[in-house]
């Protein structure tokens, strides 16, 4: 398996609560995140109390700029609103992702770490040569997310 440890940082001119609300609602992401085809809720997880949302499972269907598709599930493992969301990934990729939000002057800094290995045979075979393309594809997808979220938040603040 090919391993990836990718870090993305966004600077958004919006309050942390608005940013967290948008990031914590992945069922709505396809409306503003180009390349994300569909998100499905597979399990609602804990419904009440301090554990609300823990264990929730989403299935993500992505289409990269390079033309390949990825499908994976994320189980919410940890929440600390409005600062942190951690999820465990399984499917075409396996590992974890972590959203960290920080209030900064003029808005919110978002740091996303995606530490996964690929499970698809063709990706693992191609990784020694294609790794730079896979990283570029990830970075392009994350840039799409930053642009889409920025537009959404500006609309929400107007």
Mean pLDDT: 94
What series of H and E elements makes up the topology? EHEEEEEEH
Q: Which CATH class applies here?
A: Alpha Beta
Beta-strand residue percentage:
35-45%
Number of helices: 2
Determine the N-to-C terminus distance. Answer: 46 Å
Sheet having the most strands = 7 strands, antiparallel
Q: State the helicity in percent bands.
A: 25-40%
CATH architecture: 2-Layer Sandwich
CATH topology: Alpha-D-Glucose-1,6-Bisphosphate, Chain A, domain 4
Written description of the protein model:
It is a single chain. By secondary structure, this protein is of the alpha+beta class. It is 28% helix and 44% strand. Strands 1-7-6-5-4-3-2 form a seven-stranded antiparallel sheet, with helices on one face. A hairpin with a 1-residue loop joins strand 5 and strand 6. The longest helix has 37 residues.
How does the SSE layout of this entry go?
Layout: E1 3-12, H1 16-23, E2 36-43, E3 57-63, E4 69-80, E5 84-91, E6 93-104, E7 107-118, H2 121-157
Antiparallel strand pairs: 1-7, 2-3, 3-4, 4-5, 5-6, 6-7
List keywords for this structure.
Alpha-D-Glucose-1,6-Bisphosphate, Chain A, domain 4; seven-stranded antiparallel sheet; alpha+beta; 158 residues
Short overview:
With 158 residues, the chain is of the alpha+beta class. It has 2 helices and 7 strands; from the N terminus they run βαββββββα.
